[in-house]
Amino acid sequence: MEEPSKFERYVYKNASVYHYMKISLVLENGNKYITDAQFKQLIICGLKDLYGEVGASFPFDLLKFDQNELTGILRVYNSGLVKLWSALTLLGSYQNEACAFRVTQVSPFLLALSGNSRELRFGDQLIW
Amino acid sequence: NATPRRQLEKCPRSLLVCEKSNFLNEKSRHDIHVSKHNFNYKISVLIPECGILPANISSVIHSFSPYYLVRDLPVYQLLEETFLEPLVKKGNFYALSYNTKIDEDNAIALLSSGQLILSLDKDTYEQLGLEGRPSLYNHKKAMRFVVTLDLTDKSLTPGTKRYQRVLSSLKDRLPLRYDFLFTKYNTGSDEDQTLNKLLSQYSYEEHKPAFSQHTLKNMPCPTLYPSDIQGKTLSCDPHHFLEWLGAVNLDISCENAADSFLSTYVCPEPQSSVSQALLCTVTGFISPENVFVLLQELRQYFDEPKFTPWISLTVHGFMDSPVSWGATEHGFLKGGENLYNFVCFKNQDYWLHMATGAQDGCPP
């Protein structure tokens, strides 16, 4: 049995190397069949359109994708957050159909994406 | 003066505080950390090597206090005499304006300590005419102000001049009304009567926190040694551990190849495989007292020998709360996270991680 430990405290500022984004894709004419790979490719194209091949050449992960809701969770290095976010905001079409990305949550902690109090709803009430 | 490229690479500031101690240590502040985090939206418990939620833990969760959604409550009501003495001053009562965004709207919070916090936009603040201070998180112009009223203070006893002035500001000058979430940790029945009387004057709904559980199978799990909280040798480091916890809560796969197109996320090292793990969550408006009772119960998990050396409890605060811990101001810049996580070890050692975003004071 390990001996009870002494008190220790550490404060980390900006120590997370990643940011995480919860996003959803809204298509003008309702949901299409999109695979996870197509979803990621769409975002990559948006990045290239905005920042060019070189500017867009940073990695990001599609940690999770829900095919029914067209929602996803992305992980990106901090240095790529602004570019990724702006590309998502400006993406306007997919296969000639008008679309928009909604960024529902951003955090340097993936754990925070599992507890968004703005999702607390009651009955038939629409929040935002 | 940053170059355009550096501007593009900037990120909002975040803080992670990691504390290590032992529950049996009399100087341990785990009880204070829990009690000062007034507003809790979601709790998540992870027990590796466990398939069924132990009865004692289940029982505690199902005894969590109900909470109430009260529609269109005038804020002055929280100062009313009949309400003040039996409810506000006794403590264990929490109120938070519902569906008010701290970065856009006015937000109101009543802490268990009896402090009433009004986080107001400039117009509301000026019209209301109560003394406050500019928000700590104003950008260049002061657009947000915070009024803090200590309802237990003698100067705000009903009958005093100051009390009358505050009451008339909220009642006549600018009658603010919001939907509110209420909860009360039950310590006696006569307080319930006051609460019920108040509720009956308005449109309200009673809710029990929503509970769910999943048994996860065959998953990699980080190795944690209590002596190594920084993750230098024996444990994985705190950021990677919390990221993994996020992955578990969000049902994110950890089995990706390093060259995979979609995701390269993997469980951090050191790790081992567990055949099953139990994840259970509770969501609603949860009082710190309930969280503390649950924590006490989770500590007892190791009273009998268990396969796992650790279990985890995550508590998420409200994004739009005007405070995080105590009366420390909280804001929403790109996000409003204010969460904490306990890792409880067999020998009653614990780790406490407290995470906040850009518009937060350092956790206590």
TrEMBL record, chain A:
Gene3D superfamilies: Ribonuclease P, Pop5 subunit. The keyword Electron transport does not apply. One of its GO terms (biological process) is tRNA 5'-leader removal. It comes from the Eukaryota. Keywords: tRNA processing. Signal peptide: none annotated. GO terms for molecular function: ribonuclease P RNA binding. SUPFAM superfamilies: Rnp2-like. GO terms for cellular component: multimeric ribonuclease P complex; nucleolus. InterPro entries: Pop5/Rpp14/Rnp2-like (IPR002759), Rnp2-like_sf (IPR038085). It holds the Pfam family RNase_P_Rpp14. PANTHER family: RIBONUCLEASE P PROTEIN SUBUNIT P14. Belongs to the eukaryotic/archaeal RNase P protein component 2 family. This is Ribonuclease P protein subunit p14-like. It comes from Sinocyclocheilus anshuiensis.
TrEMBL record, chain B:
InterPro entries: RNase_P_Rpp40. One of its GO terms (molecular function) is ribonuclease P activity. It holds the Pfam family Ribonuc_P_40. GO terms for cellular component: multimeric ribonuclease P complex; ribonuclease MRP complex. One of its GO terms (biological process) is tRNA 5'-leader removal. It comes from the Eukaryota. Transmembrane segments: none annotated. PANTHER family: RIBONUCLEASE P PROTEIN SUBUNIT P40. This is Ribonuclease P protein subunit p40-like. The lineage of its organism: Eukaryota, Metazoa, Chordata, Craniata, Vertebrata.
